[in-house]
Design brief:
five-stranded mixed sheet, kinase, 441 residues, 10% strand, two-stranded antiparallel sheet, EC 2.7.13.3, elongated, 2 domains, Heat Shock Protein 90, alpha+beta, His_kinase_dom, 10 helices
Length: 441
């Protein structure tokens, strides 16, 4: 359990935690005020039947204390009833004031009952200790609130003790005892705050995990449905053409076309399955083999490979960083990132179009841009761009099919390298993918 003795709960949870414990404090003060109102009512009614003042000293102080419990409980009940019937924007602020004031008056009233015994708190601090303990355990207080209550209660104790006819040694003993109890109150209150904050954060994290699991489960169901649909088409075609080949005698050239179509359907299905397996494998970071590589050298290898593939159908330009740029990479997997983005640029860029790769070193990161002057990405597709099997998957300018996994795999690989990927695009103006990678010194 993390202790929050001198600080609040983490900022990410603080606002929700305050809302949570405010509701708890309201319930706690309702319970405490009604219980002590009932006890006070019983004592005060019985005092009308029996003369306590003739039985022991200090009965008048007890009577004042129980009257305070009764009046305070009644005030809390009335205020609570009004706030429930007429809620407003200030309701929670008023409730906060109520439970702080109740905590203070309750502790002081318990202190008064301690004074009732032989005129000196040190003779019996049981009620004083009980009052502080109940406030510390039942009411969740922020650090500033605990300090404020501690100072107010101690100041009231000091002022009250000076009114008693006590010797110096008694005065010192009373002050020492009160300081000890205030420190005890502070410690118990902060432990209570820490326990409830940890419990709240654990519940919230469990809720977040459950939502994440639900989202993953839904995504898995959606992906399976899409995969089943995408695989069903090629397999249906294969089955239909295989039956035709079995039942009918056809010209040799038509039979060759049938065989080519079957091969194409098999290759399409194989691509979908391989991409799925690849995406699952890349999500496990332990499968990565990170080593320092010069990113300039990696770009040179990529440029050489793609210049051979493009055969001057596109203009590929690579601008490397001035000096060697060592980055922790899994070279094979990062080359897959670049291949995916360049392939994507080729797919959506007309013949003789331009593809530019730009590498730049900043203070603590590397910026890598892959730009093209192709058809760009429609506005409604951008939010789905990096999602697997999303509707952002579309055919290229020459009708190339898209499974819809390439950019999802790309983002996964970039994030596994500790980087980020963003896109800047204008329809019919081109697209730029920006990758940032951290520099590990």
């Amino acid at each position: 359990m993390k202790l929050y003795l001198y600080r609040s709960a983490p900022q990410a949870y603080l606002a929700d935690f305050k809302q949570h414990y405010l509701l708890h404090n309201i319930k706690a003060v309702r319970l405490l005020s009604r219980v002590w109102f009932g006890i006070a009512a019983i004592v005060l009614v019985s005092n009308m039947l029996f003369d306590y003042s003739s039985q022991f000293a200090g009965a008048a102080i007890y009577r004042y204390a129980y009257s305070s419990y009764a009046i305070l409980g009644l005030l809390v009940f009335v205020a609570d009833s009004v706030l429930r019937r007429r809620p407003s924007a200030q309701t929670y602020s008023v409730y906060r004031f109520i439970y702080l004031m109740y905590a203070f008056v309750f502790a002081i009233t318990c202190l008064l009952m301690s004074v009732a015994v032989q005129g000196s708190p040190i003779n019996n601090m049981t009620m004083y200790l009980l009052g502080l303990s109940l406030v510390a355990v039942l009411i969740v207080l922020e650090l500033k609130e605990v300090l404020l209550l501690s100072l107010l209660v101690e100041a009231t104790f000091v002022a009250g003790v000076t009114l008693l006819d006590l010797t110096m040694d008694r005065l010192i003993m009373n002050q020492t005892g009160s300081v000890f109890l205030i420190l005890f109150f502070f410690l118990i209150s902060r432990l209570n705050y820490s326990f409830r904050a940890n419990h709240f954060m654990q519940l919230r994290q469990i809720e977040e995990k459950n939502l994440e699991l639900e989202s993953l489960s839904k995504a898995k169901t959606d992906i399976l449905g899409i995969v089943a649909h995408d695989l069903q088409g090629p397999f249906n075609n294969i089955e239909m053409m295989a039956k035709l080949l079995q039942k009918k005698t056809m010209p040799e050239d038509q039979e060759i076309r049938m065989h080519e179509m079957i091969l194409k359907c098999c290759q399409s299905s194989k691509t979908i399955i391989n991409d799925l397996l690849e995406m699952a494998r890349y999500e496990q970071k332990e499968n990565f083999d990170f080593e320092p590589h010069d990113l300039n050298q990696v770009l040179e290898e990529i440029e050489e490979d793609w210049q051979l593939q493009l055969k001057e159908t596109r203009q590929l330009s690579v601008q490397k960083a001035g000096a060697a740029l060592l980055i922790q990479l899994d070279k094979y997997k990062f080359k897959r990132v670049l291949d995916n983005l360049i392939s994507n640029a080729v797919k959506f860029t007309q013949d003789k179009g331009r593809i530019d790769i730009f590498l730049q070193k900043n203070e603590q990161e590397v910026l890598l841009k892959i730009s093209d002057n192709g058809v760009g990405i429609p506005q409604d597709m951008r939010q789905h761009l990096f999602k697997p099997f999303s509707r952002a998957g579309r055919s290229g300018v020459r009708g190339e099919r898209s499974v819809g996994l390439g950019l999802s795999i790309t983002r996964t690989l970039v994030e596994q390298h500790g980087g980020t990927i963003d896109v800047d695009t204008e329809q019919q103006q081109g697209t730029t993918f920006c990758i940032t990678l951290p520099i590990h010194t």
